[in-house]
Amino acid sequence: MAVRKLTANFDVIVAGGGLAGLFAAVAAARQGAKVAIVQSRSMFGGNASSEIRMHIVGADCHASKDNMRETGLLEELLLKNKQRNPYASFPVFDTMMWEMAYKQEHLTSYLNTTVQDVVMDGKNIRSIICYQATTETEIHLSAEVFVDATGHGTLGVLSGAKYRIGTESKYEFSEPSAPEVSNDHCMGDSLLFSARDRGEPVKFIAPDWAYHFSEEDLAIRPHTSRMVFNASDGSVLSEKAEGSRQLPDYYDSTSGYWWIEVTGHGDEMTRDSELIRDKLIRCVYGVWDHLKNVGDHGVENYDLDWVGIVPGHRESRRLDGDYVLTENDILANRVFPDAVAYGGWPMDVHCDGGIFSKQPSVAVSYEGSYTIPYRCFYSKNISNLMMAGRDISTSKMAFSSTRVMGTCAVGGQAVGTAAALAIKHGCTVAEVGSEHIKELQQTLLKNDCFIPGFRNEDPLDLARTASISADSETEAGKAVNVLNGISRSTEEGSNCWISNPLQNGPATLTLKLPQEETLSELRVTFDSNLSKSIMPSITRKALEHQVKTLPLELVKDYDVQFLRQGEIALEKNIRGNGQRLNVHKLDNLLCDEVRIIVRETYGHESARVYEVRLY
Question: Residue 520 belongs to what domain range?
Fold first, then answer.
């Protein structure tokens, strides 16, 4: 039987459909580019999908850093999931990600499709050759800009992009926490599991192929909430002692452990991935056997109800860009002139050997956050190749922070936006950074991406020329905050309008323009409490710490009135809002005043509005 062949042309092609790739593709399409996304799996999401079920962590460090949760497309997706999937079913979350891609105009998706080869034109990728197993189709796709969001840097390697793997010595970038000598150790893959309380004792008979672990084998592997550990070095203690504390919620024995991990060296992480998976399956069942049959771990009534079969990858290759982010940048909370994304997760370096090691992993914590420069997101030597996700240009130390999905997600949105700008201006991806960086940054801010140290300076935003008032405001939440250009609370202040309690009636925010204008768009950014998690998780205690509904602070019902010479020209009535950023398209409406009337939130007593933009 002959294999069917298909050929198609696009502006931008994204290889890889994890969160970074998905958001890169959606962002580019929303900016008007014709986009394709090629995903080897049958679903989007990567480690966040139902195949792996890792919860999405990022700069807020499990909600321990206030107001640091990522926004933009990630916030849009998580709020929609919270509204329609309140019990955080991962298979339903798969559908939410599928919907985001398939409903997006200008975006074509190729699922179950693997990139097999590239066609080069000098230092440019001309096209990629793919195979879609479900339809037995060989697919040739060409584009002006390519994005490697494969995680492994596969597209980059096929095209001859420069890359690095393993750990640099402390002398290469003068990193204080890097080792004396470089090595090729890569952090490992993991499999998660979940268990359910059946309300009665459940026996577990381990299969003969499972590994067996003694208490000594797992001495430094915290595996029950009854254990306590040293708060300074993470070592497990036999009993409660000074300087110790109970294990945090993510060590819940009903939802798997990050330390069920099999590591490798260099290209082993890709070459031996099938063997690594097989070892991980033996490890998962061996750990569950230990919990059930070696001592009392408090799981007598628990039964496995799901075990992953697709490992979650942590590390493999990193493609070199025009800048390599390092530990020093992170520790300094550096704000780069070409910053387009940010992170805040600890530099979390897992030990060589994974579950079989006798050495603990090391996490270098720090206060605050850091930015990631645009120069980390495109290849140093392949002129039309960009990177999104864990394969961006960093040292190993910096990578151990940037690799988490929340950080990868905002980087992906930045890359997709930049790729579309390259198409718009007919320039290279590097020239976006040298000639159009302010446009890129302001476009990201407009779409509710946060870049520490930057604020709204969009000359097209007519709201910046308006006078603003409110019928009520608190001392910490003056109406004028809405126009200060920062759309979340920071150490400097709330940066939002906070009304008096709504129990006394609706609260109104009014913007008066200096003259009559023709409006095509209104953008309103509400508060969705960026200090609390809203991610899906298989860790039950993590879900218990979240509100089941949408964030209480989020505005639920509101009206917008557009006035011309004191008369209402148009009124919109929004009920059941579920988003932080609300975009209202207008048909060239003549207007000189806009009123936003907040009627109800999801539980908070006051209206909270961060930003209003008019175009």
Answer: 462-614
